[in-house]
Amino acid sequence: MRTVGLFEAKQKLSELVERARRGERIGITRRGKLTAVMVPASSEVSLEDVFRSIEEIRKRTRRRKGVTLKGLIEEGRT
Fold it and tell me: Which residues fall within 8 angstroms of residue 26, CB to CB, at 6 or more apart?
C-alpha cells in the first residue's frame, strides 16, 4: 500500500481516486500516522451499508470538549 500525506492527498485527490478506482490501496497519513485508506468502491455496497457504517463509527467516537464539526471541516480546508 502506498501512503501519502494529507497535504499531498488534497493536491492530488483526482489522481488518487482514479488509482483507487483501478484497485490500488492508498493510505493517507496525518502527522506521520495512518488515518485513512482509499480503496475501490464495491458495486455491492448499498446506502444502507454506508449509513450503518457511519452510525457504528459515530457510536465508537467520543466527543471531545471544544471540538466542533465546523472546526473539523475548516481544519480540512487549510
Answer: 1, 2, 3, 4, 9, 16, 19, 20, 37, 38
Statement: the pTM of the whole predicted model exceeds 0.90? no
- Strand 2-5 and strand 26-30: the pairing is parallel
3-class DSSP string for the chain: CEEEEHHHHHHCHHHHHHHHHCCCCEEEEECCEEEEEECCCCCCCCHHHHHHHHHHHHHHCCCCCCCCHHHHHHHHHC
Q: What pLDDT does residue 43 have? A: 62
Residue type at position 74 = E
**pLDDT tens profile 35-60:** 999 998 876 767 787 788 888 877 77
- Residue 16 clears pLDDT 90, i.e. is over it: yes
